[in-house]
Amino acid sequence: MVADQAPSRRGRPRDAAIDRAVVDACGELLAEVGREALSREKVARRARVSVMAVYRRFASVEELLVRVASTPLPRRTAPRDTGTLRGDLTDLLRRRIGLLIHPAAVRGAAELLAAAAGSEPVRRSMLVSLAKRREETLEVLRRGAQRGELRGDADLDLIMDMLEGLVYYRLLWRSAPLEVMEIEGVLDAVLQGAAP
Fold it and tell me: Reduced to 3 states, what is the DSSP secondary structure of residue 147?
């Protein structure tokens, strides 16, 4: 077990490695056992830290879920500029699908959504995290609009919701991740109405 390096009375900072291990362990267990079976004790065992290390950081399982919800999916690189909106969106969607294609990621996302439905703090935290992801997509769409690849009155938020919504709908409700080969057809359907 990793020893907890909680702050001393002089204000020594907590060990960030323990914080990360606890959040990662919570995310893994959420996917494996679901939110109903989640406990701080199980998270401590998975993270290989003392139970007290978890108790000092998180007063409840809900607080753990708030932290997991506020931890964005890894962003490997900034959205690529391929020179065309279609190319940029193809790259972006491929990366999104790659992050969410694993069954554990799908189960974890579904469990976190269910937790958010029953907890306002988890919901608020998830919305902040998703806003960062939305901004990445909007960045790509704004770039396409500046290049004249979209009509001036195109609703970028709506286009983004259609693209992102399809990815998450397919994963969470149909259990059929969007295939990379389907991306072209999706982009044809979504972008055709917004073309100049």
Answer: coil
> What is the model's pLDDT at position 121?
96
CATH code (residue 61): 1.10.10.60
90, 80, 6, 85: which is closest to 49 by C-alpha? 6
pLDDT value of position 29:
95
Single-letter code of the amino acid located at 120: E
Q: Which domain covers residue 37, as residue numbers?
A: 16-69
pLDDT < 50: residue spans in the chain: 2-9
pLDDT score recorded for residue 8: 45
9 inside domain: no
For residues 159 and 185, membership in a common domain is answered with yes
Indicate the pTM of the whole model.
Answer: 0.74
Q: What is the CATH number of the domain that holds 173?
A: 1.10.357.10
| CA distances from residue 124 to 13, 67, 120 in whole angstroms, order as listed | 27, 11, 6
Q: Environment class of residue 9 by beta-carbon count within 10 Å: exposed (0-12), middle (13-18) or buried (19+)?
A: exposed
The token pair at 105 is 């990621």
